[in-house]
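Q: What would this chain look like folded?
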Amino acid sequence: MPGSLQSPRARRRALVAAIVGVPLVAVVLIVLLIPNHTPTKGEPHGDEGPAQLATATPPVRLKAADRRAINIVLDRFMPAALARRAPATAWALAGPELRSGSTLAAWRAGTTPVPYYPVRETSFHHWQTIDVARGSVVFNILVHAVPAAHLGAYVFSGQVVKRNGRWLVNRLYTIAIMNPVTRTTREVGPADFKAPPPTSQTPSGKAVIGHLGIVPVISIVGLVLLIPLGLAIVALFRARRWRRMVRAGGRNELPPLPSGYDTEYTQAKEFASER
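A: My prediction, written as structure tokens:
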């Protein structure tokens, strides 16, 4: 045992310190090892600088001449691309985004970025303007399928861009399917594909730390805490055994020092007297 635990008083103090300190250390380690998942407040922690304000840009109005030109392009592009009636015409009226990563040969084979839909309309002037920019228009349009296809109405979103004085269809994709509502089918719209709102709460039914995941943490904490407690218990038992041995021998004095200590003391005393 270390020299600091030779005294009975020191051993008693070590035992009391271990008994008091073990629960305190256990609480501190548990608080530090188990993470806190409480959502924090969105308050600033310091000077974040001036706010960045959005600059208002004047709205761009679509001219009547541009709308008529877009009508002509859609009247040709929609049946040619959606129904696959004229792949070469659809390719000629496609913008750079639809053409990227594809070829005219692929369009002729039926592999295009435009979804297949057997459209029934022959005129596509009923599209709705969503956003207008310089040389670009985003629109939505509702179309119907031929009766033989037994499909509901579809809503497409697209973009037309102006390149070298010509309007081209740069983007076209489905955003809603108006299927007849039955027991197995329903209407599918943009809300069905929208990402869920952000949340800081933990999903229900899923623990942050599983039952098996906390076992190593408890094992490490217990091992660290048992070391000083074990030393204190060993020191206590040795002290009690020593007291019993003293009582059984009928003596209360301390055990004699080893012989080496007496020899060193005598030599030191003689050296001091000679000087």
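The beta strands are 128-133, 136-143, 153-163, 166-178.
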